[in-house]
Design goal:
It is a single chain. By secondary structure, the chain is α/β, with parallel strands linked by helices. Helix content is about 25%, strand content about 15%. It has a 5-stranded mixed beta sheet with strand order 2-1-3-4-5. Helix 3 packs parallel to helix 4. Bound molecules: zinc ion. Zinc ion binds next to helix 3.
Amino acid sequence: MKEDKRADYISWDEYFMGVAQLAACRSKDPGTQVGACIVSPEHKILSMGYNGFPMGCSDDEYPWCREGEDNKYLYVAHSELNAILNYRGGSLEGTTIYVTLFPCNECAKAIIQSGIKEVVYDCDKYADQKNTICSKRMLKSAGVVLRKYERTGRKISIEL
Ligand code: ZN
């Protein structure tokens, strides 16, 4: 007798947003942890990233504070930029990026120029801020599809 396939497997969207969330867990930023996952049209994961300092810039030497003359904004690379730059396999033309937070205007430029054609985002809590408004303006002008991730409420616990 043939067994039926499992019915409770996770969807592609849950899979890739879950992977982006897992990547965010790697961030040392005490304020905001963001993760990104770039996927090919064939549903293959090409790259991942999270917000952090560039290679060689120690998390113990560079500042994680938000204010003051020397602050994290001067040094941190966002998850989307890291995911784009981490990919060394060639072109990202026609791919989709899953992000846990809507991309800022600087990441939008990198997304557009790298040929990514769709952004699937979860949180959009800075929607009213100028940099998010400008980001959406550029992404729309460039024909990048913006799709809000639909949370399913599924909870997965993983023992590590
Ligand atoms: Zn950004």
